[in-house]
Amino acid sequence: MFGIGEKFDLTHAVYAREGSAFFLIENYYSHLLQLSSYKPGAWLDSNPFLFNLRAFLGEREMPYTYHGDPGSMKLTCMTGQLELIFTYNEYARILGTGGLSLMLEASRYKPGAPAVDGACHGVCTLPDGTTELSWSTYGKLRLNPLKGSVKVETEQNDVGEYTAVKLTLLPDANGESDFALHEDMIEIPALPKSYPAPEELRKDGFERYASFRQNYRKPAEGFEQLFNYASHTVWARRTKPGAGGIYKSPMILMHYEYLGEGFSWQQSFNGMAMLNNPKEGWRQICTMFEYQNEQTGQLPGNVGFLTANAGIQPPIQGFALDYLIQHCGDSFLTREECEKMYPKFAKWLDFWVTYRSAGRGDVVQINSPNDSGWDDATIFADGFPTVNPDLMAFMIDLLEATGRLAEGCGKNAEAEEYYARSKCLLQILLDEHWDGDRFVTMHNGKPVKSLSIAGFQPIILGKKLPQNIIDRITEQLLEEDNYLTEIGLASESLRSANSDYGTSTFVHGRVVAPVQLFMCAGLNLAGKKKEAAYIARRFCRCSQERGCILGFPPRTDVYPATGKPVFITPGPVASDGWPWSSWNACSNLTLITSVIPEDE
Amino acid sequence: MQLDLKKMPFGQCLSRHLLFEEWDPQGKGYTKGLYLALAAESSSMFGGVVSRSAGMVKLTPTLGGEELPVTVEASVSEAALHSGGKTLRMAIDGKALLLESDGLSLTMQVRLGFGETAADFENGYVLNMGPTRYIIEMRKGKADLQVMWDLTALHSTDPVITLTPEDGRLEAVFWDTDSSFARPEIAPNVSAAARKAETAFADFRARCSGTNEVYAYALWLSFQKTRGQELLIANKMSDVKALGRAQFTAALAYKDTEQVLDALLNVFALMTPAGMVPAWVKDSAILPEAAPPLWGLALCRAIAHDGLDGAAKDKLERCYELAAKATEWWYSNRSANGACFYAYACESGWARQPLPSDATPQVFPDLCAWMFLNCKALAALADKLGKSDAAAWHDKAKAQLDILKSLWENGAFVIRNAITGEEAPCPSDSAIMTLALGEDLPEGVAPTGEADGIPAYIAALGCSKRAAALAAESIEKSGVPAAANYDPELCALSLALEERS
């Protein structure tokens, strides 16, 4: 799928697989493959836990091409092959033929930086013949030679800091090598007495990927290739529970190279895409509740391998559940499920109403943009606190979902109360935030002037909105050169003087995946299926061509509203610094398996 | 006791609030002045680390809108800012910092990081800083907030908050809380909070060895809840790591046996399932390398003090069980033929140094000494608890002394490669620390040489003359400015040495 001569190589994407910590990228500068682990949650630009993969025949360095599939990554040289098989367990198998050696050389992503720094605390060959590397808080590696031997080369300065570390995996007398490379964030447990045959490990990768793809419906015609890449991108970021970390059930990481964590609302984005297996989709939506604060009801903002971050992300779960039900029915919501999840949803709702109260009923206000997910949108131009219609829409759906779960476990009176609250909040949204064109954000009771597409996010409420509002939003979303571009919907109107497509911006004008999902899924739910598909095709075509990247600049020459030049620093990853992301992948999967097909 | 806030912050055991005077001694360009801070890990809204210097809020008292010269006084329990004949007093009560003024206004210049905001909140303001919610609650007086949100930079412009008295009185409480905004019951005013703090400190001092109040304060101040345990923090101002090693050395400062056992149990609670005591922990991270195994040093000292008679049996049982597990970890994971080794130089716990033989495990004399003390302490505990394995621990202790003796060659220690047997000269820190064995040091073994800092202090624990020499002069004068650098570990050792001398 990824490799030299393929549609995408690893300068743009990451090679990984479900349940493994390891990932590979191609260094933009050296074109060597580099190996790392997502578990420390490090950022690629500053990650010292990064190893160049260099091939040698004797003393001679050999160039290689590479090709990765769900089974393994093969590095091919003129004289032989090196193969890395990432496994569902906490090790990779590394095989070599043709007398090739593989050097793991501690390095950095950017050229010029020292090879290693204080993070390397040591390399030690232990009495059992294995070699362990300790990399401070980044984790440990242990090489177990099954065939061949390890050559260790290090350099230390006067105070014992490592300035160079190279481990060369040497072949045996027959020119073959076989190593198990174990990883752990704390301690490498006792090594297995024996290992499965490599073929079994490769097969496991293919089988798990094939099985995972079954969660999705068939993609719309013409988007099969995007389906392959998107489903692989999500699968490859699916975590393994346990393994010394805090993952209790499989969760989807956002990235590997940056933000290698399971983000709260992205689990729901992922869940609502799994329309061929709504039971799994519902499980995915519920994963964050495994970390719910028992006292406050808060869900963490994200869950890393070792720690959960107490930040907040929006309460999208009701919307995601609504989408699943509207497309698959609700048979997956068994009484048992409802009894399990109703109190958790109710508590999550209470968190918002209690700790984000605007002082009236279920209206909430926020002091941080992250609480809404619209991080750098212009709806926050006047500062905080704000009362956001986008968040209100989530709350309306969450109230309804909580009612649905209450009903599912026979608590009809409680359900009716939630439904009534949902309707009441909807009325407030319509009465106080709709200005005839858009839903406006309020800051201290005053409307914030903004051309952010966030003002249309309540379209996720679908047919709960009056038809005139649905029509007006649809009309504006379809208007060329307002929000609609050749590659999808811009997050800030092209007519806005506040647009910024720079690499460090998110929803300040770029065409980003979750925005397409909200708008297209919302239009779909509102009965505007053709219009939804029309917009979705544009973004999906762009992703199919350019990869599962979270967002794209709508223009690279000038900002249409001001004529000022667009300045986007060409970055080392992906097209302009943004990496491949499961958030794009799952958004695309929803679009190509439900929004677009429903127009056909 | 008056605190010099240029040298040591005003704070409190188990509280994250700090008040200190920045004077930029290293010329790093920090703005000088009085600062409030939190002993906290900084994390962004995405969970990554936000870097900022310790000072979070720069405080400028004013009178009638004018900035006048300020003098600062601080005791263990209360801090006061005097300016223009008026006073602003502060005291800490756990999560709350109480503030009262009889006429002074206060300008607070806040520094916020990525994703952080300041906003109105109830009768005051809230600073949203990662998982922290720093609430400024006005009780008397007026407040004003000036702040803007920088859209594309994703953070607030640095807020300026002005607190102004009304009818000559200003009263406020600064809360260190989280997204639950939980605010527990606190003392009603600054005076009551100060009395509470004074009593708590006096109780702590009564359980410590030595008499030096500054060292005791530095030690008391430095405890913080980390990973659910009350642990000694390396430096609340700049480094909120809880070093495994430091918990053991801090335990040396106590004359109260229960306190020693509590300190050990707190750090043993951090052990990995296999029994490794980590080199350090923070709430967000753990350094998964072994801390030097110094629990036996603390236990042997407590045994020598009162034979552990002052400890509850269930606590002794628990301590025995965990100390045995931690000791066994070294035998299972860091030993060859009974000799324990450091796999990495940093496992010794002190200054890094290049290993003489690349990438291979090394047997060091200090590790032999610690393992001897661990086995000796476990033997004593087993005896006291009537366990059958006392003899086995005695044998293991003896074996460690034998290995130690084997490392003594021609009047000096060597280190030995655990796999190849190759030998190399021993670093002086490792050699000198074996003096901590005191009378248990094998006959004929007499390491000499110099060591600085903590190794020197640990060595002195085994030698009353050295201890007396170090304790007699202040640590500052001896070239190890513990208090000036606010090093709680050195302060703990200094208290222990006072007793030893």
List keywords for this structure.
heterodimer, A: 600 residues, alpha+beta, Beta-galactosidase, Chain A, domain 5, Glycosyltransferase, 9-stranded antiparallel beta sheet, 12 helices, 28 strands, B: 501 residues, 2 domains, 8-stranded antiparallel beta sheet
Task: Walk me through what this model shows.
The complex is a heterodimer of chains A (600) and B (501). Chain A has 600 residues and is α+β, with helices and mostly antiparallel strands. In chain A, 30% of the residues lie in helices and 20% in strands. In chain A, strands 1-6-7-8-9-16-13-12-11 form a nine-stranded antiparallel beta sheet, covered by helices on one side. In chain A, strands 2, 3, 4, 5, 10, 14 and 15 form a seven-stranded antiparallel beta sheet that branches. In chain A, helix 5 (317-328) packs across helix 7 and helix 7 runs antiparallel to helix 8. The radius of gyration of chain A is 25 Å and the shape is globular. In chain A, 60% of the residues are buried. By secondary structure, chain B is of the alpha+beta class. Chain B has an eight-stranded antiparallel beta sheet, covered by helices on one side. In chain B, strand 25 (408-409) and strand 26 form a beta hairpin. In chain B, helix 3 (244-251) packs parallel to helix 12 (488-500) and helix 6 packs antiparallel against helix 7. Chain B is elongated, with a radius of gyration of 25 Å. The chains are: A alpha+beta (600), B alpha+beta (501). At the A-B interface, strand 11, strand 12 and strand 14 of A face strand 9 and strand 21 of B.
